[in-house]
């Protein structure tokens, strides 16, 4: 297929050119790496006021995103398949994500807390599927309201830097029978040491279990908590994201690995490997392994 061959060629050329040239042309001081305080404006010296757009989750485009078992017949737990026949989907598609946050209230609650609004959107685009007129297979929208509080104490050799709570909504904006959405209250704790950052996030679903639930038992598949472990050095970033249902019976979850390497300034090559449930909302109870290759645009 021409599109796939072209995408592979562009990525291969970028990678090989970078490997040959980054030692000659890339300056280490051009690589921006944010501490937790800089990313979330925790210390007084890092405060930047309100209503300034900042990066949040990874911001990337993957021209090649392959699944070993793409979900051709979406089906919620305990319900009939959404379609009478499997959809003729391609196993290779384009995946991209945009994400940003902005502080809307600074130094509230005894002058220590900050209130942020975050937004993340993930797209799975069947751009190589000419037979189906190249549709977007799945779009996930995730706005959230985050209350954040700085910390400063030692925990198991790490410096605890912040804790807080968020109200999180996630939806694919689709009508029945492929509508998917849920609301969560998410607690978070962030730790830092040298080149490592760790985010721990347990959550509780709000309003699930009713008869008109779009995605029953989603927390049993996507999970009830996640641990995000990030390592950065010399512009290279490695990230391991673990999610789990925290259930001894029928335990489910997922693991995602991201590796980002410097190309030029804040432009990075991006490799992503995922295995488990909940790669997106339409696949919340669908097990698959995916591999994506593309570029990231900003540090996170």
Automatic annotation (TrEMBL):
Cofactor, how bound (note): Binds 1 Ca(2+) ion per monomer.
GO MF terms, alphabetically ordered: calcium ion binding; phospholipase A1 activity; phospholipase A2 activity
The UniProt record lists the keyword Transmembrane helix: no
Pfam families per record: PLA1 (PF02253)
Keyword Protein biosynthesis on entry: no
Cofactor entry: Ca(2+)
Subcellular location: Cell outer membrane
GO biological process, one term: lipid catabolic process
EC number annotated for this UniProt entry: 3.1.1.32, 3.1.1.4
Protein's recorded name: Phosphatidylcholine 1-acylhydrolase
PANTHER family, per the entry: PHOSPHOLIPASE A1
One GO term describing the cellular component: cell outer membrane
Membrane topology: Multi-pass membrane protein
Sites where the protein binds Ca(2+): 133, 174, 179, 214
EC category: hydrolase
Catalytic reaction list: a 1,2-diacyl-sn-glycero-3-phosphocholine + H2O = a 2-acyl-sn-glycero-3-phosphocholine + a fatty acid + H(+); a 1,2-diacyl-sn-glycero-3-phosphocholine + H2O = a 1-acyl-sn-glycero-3-phosphocholine + a fatty acid + H(+)
Record's subunit section: Homodimer; dimerization is reversible, and the dimeric form is the active one.
Residues of the active site: 169 (proton acceptor), 171 (nucleophile)
Entry similarity comment: Belongs to the phospholipase A1 family.
Main localization (coarse): membrane
Key words, A-Z: Calcium, Cell outer membrane, Hydrolase, Lipid degradation, Lipid metabolism, Membrane, Metal-binding, Signal, Transmembrane, Transmembrane beta strand
